[in-house]
Amino acid sequence: MTEETFKSKFQREAKKPSLKAFRAFGGGTTLCPGRQFATTEILATVVTMIMRYDFIPAEGRWVAPETEKTNIAAGCWR
């Protein structure tokens, strides 16, 4: 089988992925029924790490991240 025949038979052209291709917990009719459980487990794991270990900044002081060129949600925590 020649390379051209192989390409035409087995390889499709790459499609550009949809902007909605990745949704962590789905949405609409594909909404994940365990999304609250997963979110709670992640939160519990982070809280356990924070309570169990002493976190020290690498440069000697905590530095807040820049929020000038980001969405509004990131700027609300200040």
Q: What would the keywords be for this entry?
A:
78 residues; single chain; mainly alpha
How are the SSEs ordered, and which strands pair?
Layout: H1 3-10, H2 35-52, H3 72-75
**Mean pLDDT across every amino acid position:** 76
Return Rg in Å.
23 Å
Judged by helices, strands and strand pairing, the structural class is mainly alpha
Percent range for helical residues?
A: 25-40%
- What's the main sheet like? none
Principal-axes geometry comes out as elongated
Fraction in beta strands: under 5%
Q: Can you tell me the residue ranges where pLDDT is under 50 for at least 5 consecutive residues? A: none
Write the element-wise H/E pattern from the N-terminal end onward. Answer: HHH
Distance between the termini: 63 Å
Tell me how many strands there are. Answer: 0
Annotation field: number of helices: 3
Tell me what you see in this structure.
This protein is elongated. The protein contains three helices and no strands. The mean pLDDT is 76. It is mostly helical.
Question: What's the quick description here?
Answer:
The chain is mainly alpha-helical and 78 residues long. The protein has helices at residues 3-10, 35-52, 72-75.
